[in-house]
């Protein structure tokens, strides 16, 4: 899997990714369950249990079926998420595939990315090669980073999120992506945010349709999530159970089922899907037996135990260049 640049049209498409409808009046019914059902797939989530405090999270995910305008989040943690996306079609009809890592501001300030006080904003510390970074709004506010990552269905996508203290009142949150071509972990970005709380907390994967053009709800999207490991500071804790949830969309062409090949739960939405009787939505299931999985190795521990990253001054927001 080789990282390569793509055209300016792709960059512009990326800048709109994961922003909810900024021009929607808060008083309108754009997000009513009925209107969501008319235009888009139901967003589905898989929570990693037990929920524990942790300072690093390692996650594997395999996309089984994608469609234009899909976000497969490998890990949604407290104040951020990391995963891969298939973007909406560009002018040439091509749908680029990228990796994305986002961190929210520590304090809520609505959906306008420019409204947050300067001292309350997530501040970029470093970004990886070929990564674009910028502020975002529309779903809360914060900083996001994106790079081309031409993943394919069936690939094992490995992500790592690490939190480190950065003084008494701040913390760093970094997102990494494993590059199977270089066989190295590569930084997406690192952000410095206020430490109103410590620890990544929570943890879940999700599948989301952000194209929302009516046709998109007819297209199946599916991914398998696991194993999921959390670093507690003393040991790796592996998720042994999973909770299946959804958003308020009325569409019920969703399901969560065991992937017999991978041994973990497969989460799907859209198309001709229907709920599984043995794993209804809002239920919790334990994996018994838990598939054998190797704990993250020394390369991951080197990242976790390394000193915090030093801030770098950037003259622009980055670009997808060679």
Helix content estimate: under 10%
Order of helices and strands: HHEEEEEEEEEEEEEEEEEEH
Shape: globular
Overall tally of structural domains: 1
Number of H/I helices: 3
In whole angstroms, the N-to-C terminal distance is: 15 Å
Describe the strand arrangement of the main beta sheet, using strand numbers.
7-8-5-4-3-12-1-15-18
Mean pLDDT: 90
User: Pairing-aware structural class of the strands and helices?
Assistant: mainly beta
Output the radius of gyration: 19 Å
Key terms for this structure?
322 residues; 40% strand; nine-stranded antiparallel beta sheet; mainly beta; 7% helix
Task: Give an overview in words.
This protein has one domain. The protein is about 5% helix and about 40% strand. It has helices spanning about 10-15, 35-40, 300-305; strands at about 45-50, 55-65, 70-75, 80-85, 95-105, 125, 130-135, 140-150, 155-165, 170-180, 185-195, 200-210, 220-230, 235-240, 240-245, 255-260, 265-270, 285. The strands form 2 sheets. Strands 7-8-5-4-3-12-1-15-18 form a 9-stranded antiparallel β-sheet, covered by helices on one side. The longest helix is centred in the N-terminal third of the chain and has 9 residues, at about 10-15. The chain is globular and about 50 Å long. The protein starts with 7 loop residues before the first helix and ends in a 17-residue tail after the last helix.
